[in-house]
Amino acid sequence: MVPRALLPWVPFHPQIGLSAWPARLRIMPTAQGRLHYYYGLEQVRCLASWIVTVLASIVFGSAGVIVSFVDRQGNVTHACARQWARTLMWIHGVHLATHGLENLEPKQSYVFVANHNSQLDIPALLVALPIRFRMFAKASLFRVPFVGWYMRRVGYVPVPRGGATTDLGYAATQILDGDSMLVFPEGTRTGEAELTRFRKGGFFLARSAGVPLVPVAVLNSGRLFPRGKIWVNLGVVEVRVGQPIAADEAESLAELAERCRRRVAELAL
Fold first, then answer.
1. Can you say whether the dihedral through the CA atoms of 185, 188, 189, 195 is positive or negative?
2. I need a surface site. Which of 80, 97, 138, 249 has the fewest CB within 10 A?
């Protein structure tokens, strides 16, 4: 039997209600008391998860940089990134559901075109996509210790702010070396709102390198980790992979970008 002094701290689940508890345990704390209880637990979970996030970034970032000196093909360094992403998803209580991987050929290089809802998108895509890829990322991320060092070492492509030109030639070299490339053509995180206009750089890259484009939709990440928040809500992120789209010369880059945007929007429905 639970001592009466501890009854205010018995957890209460709003979807279960009091009827599921034995009669002697139905003396529940006030709404304010329950709020303080759960808010306190959430603060502890948030702090612990971010401590593990920092430690994981140090460990896997350092390991990836060291291994990159002997890992010519980049398979082991990419495995470090995927394990880092799995650790983050696990510690933050985020599960992953993936659909459409049968559309991908393991030995084919692609330019993946994805919507960008949240900072959870990159870990989710690292875990979901079974193909080794590099990505375009904000130039400021390359200054982050360990993670930025890893990104620069393994060949991620910095995207400068202020209208400066991105090195698409370097990205094309990465594709010709056997890597795929991940692009967020909206250019910034947009939450779960409607897709904005796609920029043309990634489509020019696919056409220049002669590889197909693959539309990818990431769902629910913006709700689990909204922009401006410091903790991640528990839940499921869904990744849907569409069929490859040829980046041929039959249409302009603007038309190709709009066709891919519509396809990503359809996957997100």
1. negative
2. 249
- pLDDT tens, residue by residue, 6-45: 333 334 343 434 344 444 433 444 555 555 555 667 778 7
Residue where the block lists tokens 């002094």:
5
CATH no. for 4-267: 3.40.1130
Element (H, E) at 236: strand 235-241
Mean pLDDT for 99-111 is: 94
For residue 222 the two structure tokens come to: 């913006």
CA 181 to each of CA 53, 111, 205, 264: distance values in angstroms, whole numbers, following the listed order: 25, 5, 9, 17
The size of the chain, in residues, is 269
| Phi/psi-derived region of residue 178, left when phi > 0, alpha when psi is between -120 and 50, beta in every other case | left
Give the separation between CA 223 and CA 236, rounded to whole angstroms: 10
pTM of the complete model = 0.80
Sign of CA dihedral 206, 136, 87, 239: negative
Domain boundaries defined on the chain: 4-267
